[in-house]
Records
---
Amino acid sequence: MNRAVSASNDLVIRTASPLDVQVLGAFGTLLVALHHKLDPQRFIETTRTTPANYTGFLERKISDPNAMLFVAEQGGILLGYVYGEMEGHDYMSLRGPAGVVHDLFVDASRRREGIGRLLIVTILSEIKARGAQRVVLSTAHQNKTAQQLFAALGFRATMI
């Protein structure tokens, strides 16, 4: 599905395309680095191959019918992305079928402008349109900013 949501100042949230994956791979690399900085014992460190690996990963997800990948774009410049999937039962996390939000990233210079919120609202709308009864996501324990955003959108902490 190709959703496009216009926001103020020509900001558009749209479905990612193959032309976006190089930038998204760089964003994914920054996401890995951010998590590693928060907790190096828990999260992997970036390597010289991380950008290519993340780019390839997201490139494959664009054509995956269970995946959802949206970008925030303004004036032809990508500012962030959100990636999630429709998943079946997961007995390791003790849940039934759900929409699972895996990644949310906004360029550091554009955070706290509502871009992350727009990305999450867009993917939540898509998950609901696909018929999911529940949506789950996780965030690093130290990422209080993300936790505040998710709580404001109705998420609650269920696991530690």
Note: The domain at 4-152 is CATH 3.40.630.30 (Aminopeptidase).
---
Amino acid sequence: MSNSRIAIDWDAARASNRANWEDRVPLHEKAYAISELDDPNHLTGVIRTDLAALAPFLPGGTVSGLDVCHLQCHIGTDTLSLARAGARVTGVDFSPGALASAAGLAQRLGLDATWVESDVLEARDAVDSDFDLVYTSIGTINWLPDLGRWAGQAAALLRPGGTFYIRDGHPALYAIDEHADGLQLRYPYFGNGEAQLWDDESTYDGDGKVAHSRTYQWAHPLSEIINSLIAAGLQILHLGEDKTLPWKFSPRMVEVAGGFAWPESERDLVPCTYTIVARKAGGQPPRNEFKGPLPR
């Protein structure tokens, strides 16, 4: 695996990234615990965590009965878990192979979903509806160069009073050398507009290699993420940070309840994820009768 910073045209970077994600589809179909969804009561671990974090900000603490748009939905396991939780779901992704896989899984499980092939930076023009909740989670915005445009798309997809939610890997985590013997900084925390070029045949989950190994990602500090949402007209309701991840970022991480974490002696030194909940102005905010604790 190699990494360097490079200036590259977005269309070229997007094409390279999409080829890589197309290659990941059959690998993730085998690696993801898809068979567990055959249990009609099963929700993915990501969705169980995110529903608990969202509950204080949703009517009755649930997505049931809401129109939900899942941005960068990949093969749809989390999208269909939202549907199983009672939401009317639309999944958006730029990979036709991923959406075909998602549609096949939805048919097999007997769940209704709408699938839209689109770059997330063009989602508003591609999707006909608007939504009560725009949702994105885990491994998403590091693939995008322009967070102002991203946040604008999310805000435009929301109805007045609608809720935006993101949980993702923390920018501080992404600055760490995942292969070092300790917590050692290697990659940029602050972005300068240049992409990080990766050449890696592996994928974050499962065995096998991708044929298109070159990808481009962008560093975004937490301040940029939050300010892009504010600039798009969204009100920040909650910011949380946590010590666990749903995937093994580093070989040094250990399995814990809820995913993976650094060894206990290092666990309080660096955040692994952040969570942001925001709301679009206008309309009537959903009545919230949920009385549980706020998420971290």
Note: The chain is about 30% helix and 25% strand.
